[in-house]
Amino acid sequence: MTTQTTTSRAAEQTYSIELPGPPGVLPFPKDVPTVPLLVIEWEKLDDPEERKRLVEACTTTGFFYLHKTPVDPAPMFELADEVFALPMDEKMKYDMGTTGNYFGYKKQGAMTYDADGTPDLIEFMNISKDDALQQSPQPLAQPEPVAKNMHKIREYTEASHTVVRKILEVLSIELGLEPDFLGKLHDKAQLSGDQTRFARSPPVPKGAKVKDDQTLGAHTDYGSVTVLHNRLGGLQVRPDGVTWAYVRPLKDCAVINLGDAIAKMTGNFLKSSLHRVVSPPGVQASTPRTSVVYFSRPANDVLLAPVPSKYVKVDDQGPYPSAGEWIARRARNMMVANHKGEETFKAGRGTEATDVGR
User: Fold this and answer.
1) Residues 265 and 306 sit within 8 Å (Cβ to Cβ)
2) Which of the residues in the chain have pLDDT under 70?
């Protein structure tokens, strides 16, 4: 059995975890650069040493593996296959549009990923947390596979939110705040941009207009905490700020990263790091890549203002956008239909470096 060894500088421990090996998944190659992210144990998150390691990850790369969470992504991968197998005209009935709404279906090529307006090579379906929990005042129509399996999406949403709340608890304590401070800003009972996403990118065709086989260009996430499950490589980060390297999928691990909302509220004490999606490496490149993601964001009316912590430097004096406004602005300006050049592209950016897309 192939294994990957990941070493933690903080705990001076070595973790050797089996790579995912479900039937039909081609092996991740051994000869490509990978990022040595910390592996955090979910079941040890009440242990002070494990919490220190989580904080180390969140204040450096903003990425880490979380091992053995209560989230079971398998039903969501099956549901994603059903959704993406639908005819295009059926999927387009649930198109998210171009006005800043970020729930529904997005076809391949509907978004830009650089200042030149290059269309992306990924399709996805975003399902609102508030629809899944049956608390939306205006629930959206859903494709038939989603509608009949909403109870499964609800279970996935609840489990993912449990993970998010625990991470936010650890970070609140590190910031010198009440343990539930950040969690209250992400109250699942409040309307928010939280969503479950099914994403799929096909093998990049020869001659396609892409850069470095990118299917989704360099970006930061809109919200606070992202819980990602994938079975193939393709996600890349650049921990040194220069060189892109793959994040290798590990068995029974979610990939966790922080987003712009929590970075803005903590004056970048907590890191929202650039990442992108490219073709899977080696033999995996011949296979469509499917991901299942839960994006957690503050409640829509929460202002992305600095939290009252001694670790937070207040350089930005406002005015501060609400979480709902932040999401809508970024989503609207990323659409190909709204692209008017570099100015539009920059308006769709978050806390990224200024050279993104160049």
Assistant:
1) yes
2) 1-24, 205-213, 349-358
Cα–Cα dist 99/211, whole Å: 27
Contact predicate 214/29, CB 8 Å: no
Q: How far apart are the first and last CA of the chain?
A: 40
DSSP calls for 38-82: -EEEGGGTTSHHHHHHHHHHHTTTSEEEEES-S---HHHHHHHHH
149 secondary structure, DSSP code:
T
Query: Using an 8 Å Cβ cutoff, are 126 and 206 in contact?
Result: no
Helix (H, G, I), strand (E, B) or coil at 252: coil
Q: pLDDT tens, 95-110?
A: 999 888 899 999 999 9
**Residue 240 in 3-state DSSP?**
coil
Residue 3 has a pLDDT of 40
Q: Look at the pTM and tell me if it is higher than 0.70.
A: yes
DSSP 263-275: HHHTTTSS----E
Ordered alpha helix ranges (H), the chain = 48-58, 74-84, 88-91, 129-132, 144-148, 150-174, 181-185, 260-265, 323-333, 342-347
The CB density around residue 159, as the number of other CB atoms within 10 Å, is 17
Q: Which tokens hold the place of 307?
A: 């939290």
Residue 315 φ/ψ, nearest 5 degrees: -95, -35
Give the residue carrying structure tokens 């501060």. 320
Q: Which two tokens stand for residue 286?
A: 């011949």
185-228 confidence digits (pLDDT tens)? 999 999 999 999 999 998 876 655 555 567 777 889 999 999 99
Q: Where are the alpha helices (DSSP H) in 186-333?
A: 260-265, 323-333
Token match 């892109």: residue? 244
Q: Which residues contact 325 (CB under 8 A, 6 or more apart)?
A: none
Give Cβ neighbours of residue 352 (< 8 Å, ≥ 6 apart): 218, 219, 220, 274
Using an 8 Å Cβ cutoff, are 312 and 175 in contact? yes
Strand, coil or helix: what is 148? helix
Q: Is 168 helix (H, G, I), strand (E, B) or coil?
A: helix
Characterize the bridge pairing of strands 13-18 and 3-8. Answer: antiparallel
